[in-house]
Write a structure and sequence with these properties.
The protein has 6 helices and 6 strands. By secondary structure, it is α/β, with parallel strands linked by helices. Strands 3-2-1-4-6-5 form a 6-stranded mixed sheet.
């Protein structure tokens, strides 16, 4: 099974304010890395950088973020949008009544033929085409 990993999983993996979520996020990422079944889009990398540089309780240094990008995110970057992607995402937005940003995450997962979408931000168990949302923190 292929899995798309939403931004919040990476953020929790770096955040020590909730040790239980941090541990679960790290375990999930390690499992997906070992099995080569986890993937992200360029949007996930952009959102991750934005949050950990400015919005985290303890912002990371750019050099630390760069290291995380190199070691964790770039090896699983599998989706870089083209112009047609945004039109598909708009159809997903309309079809499922998602926020626009969630529709782009779902559409990237669909484009990559992922079966699972690991996310805390979307409804656990929701189905979007062939993609099922799984909240790993439940």
């Amino acid at each position: 099974m292929k899995a798309f990993i939403d931004t919040n999983i990476f953020i929790y993996a770096q955040d020590e304010s909730d040790t239980e979520k941090a541990q679960k996020a790290r375990e999930l990422l390690l499992k997906l890395r070992k099995t080569h079944t986890g993937f992200v889009s360029s949007q996930v990398i952009q959102e991750f950088c934005n949050v950990v540089l400015k919005k985290s309780a303890t912002p990371l240094k750019p050099s630390d973020v760069s290291e995380i990008i190199d070691e964790l995110l770039l090896p699983i970057l599998a989706h870089t949008p083209d112009g047609a992607f945004y039109k598909r995402a708009l159809k997903t937005y309309e079809q499922y009544s998602l926020s626009y940003y969630d529709s782009t995450i779902v559409q990237a997962a669909i484009d990559l033929n992922c079966n699972l979408l690991y996310s805390e931000d979307m409804q656990h168990g929701a189905h979007y085409g062939t993609v099922t949302v799984v909240n790993p923190f439940l």
